[in-house]
Amino acid sequence: IYALIIAKLTGIRKLISSFGGNYFPGNRSFDTFLLRFIYKIFDPFINLYICNSHIGKKCLLAELNLNHKKIIVINNGLDFNLMSEKKPINILPIISKNKIVGSVSNLNYDKDPLNFIESAYLVKKKYNNVDFHLIGSGNLEYKCREKIEKLGMSDYFKLYTNINQGHLVSNFFDIAVLSSRNEAFPNVLLEYMFWGKPCVVTD
Fold it and tell me: Are the beta carbons of 89 and 106 closer than 8 angstroms?
């Protein structure tokens, strides 16, 4: 917001805005209402918007009522050469010989790690030969640990908050999970597929 104001006051002629969050039809969060208000005011001064997916563009049009002619799509990408040059890192302690279901994710509302934990609880009740690993950090860390303990999952569900190379660790998953509430096609799915991992994602 401040950058837009300063840019205009200093005479910058072209303004480009990108979106780092996810705004989908039906979202009634305070953040979405705030964004509608902000962009209703600043839209006339912005020359171009950048989205990383066509579904993201569709959602922005539906939620923020932006001018479709001012939105372009630059798809997410992954440097396969860089991935190939780095060796996978196995820093996950092997709990047992069970299959490993894992997720690399920020621990926040949009990524919905609690959904992954609750789903893991249901899966474990039916299939005993599986363990779960969640790699990430964020403001829901305490709630995640609390949920894991409350459901009695501590022996087979492990949370790692100090790993900064999750894209290399995920090679050791047997199945990869994306539990987000509202994402189109995040980079982590490309990383999972690079390693040839089957993916379970939310719709």
Answer: no
